[in-house]
Amino acid sequence: MSKPFEEIFGPIIGNGAQATVYAKGDCAVKLYRKGYPKTNVFSEAFIMANLERLNFPSPKIREVLLVNGRYGLRMDRVRGKILSEELADPARCEAAVEKLVEIQCRLQAYDASTWAPDLKRRFRDDLIRNDHLFADLRKELLGILDGLPDGRALCHCDFHPGNIFFDGEDYTIIDLLQISSGDPAADAACSYVSYCMIHPDLAELYLNKYCARSGISRASVSQWLRMYAGTLLGQVPEQLTPIIERFLRTNPS
Question: pTM for this structure?
Answer without folding.
Answer: 0.92
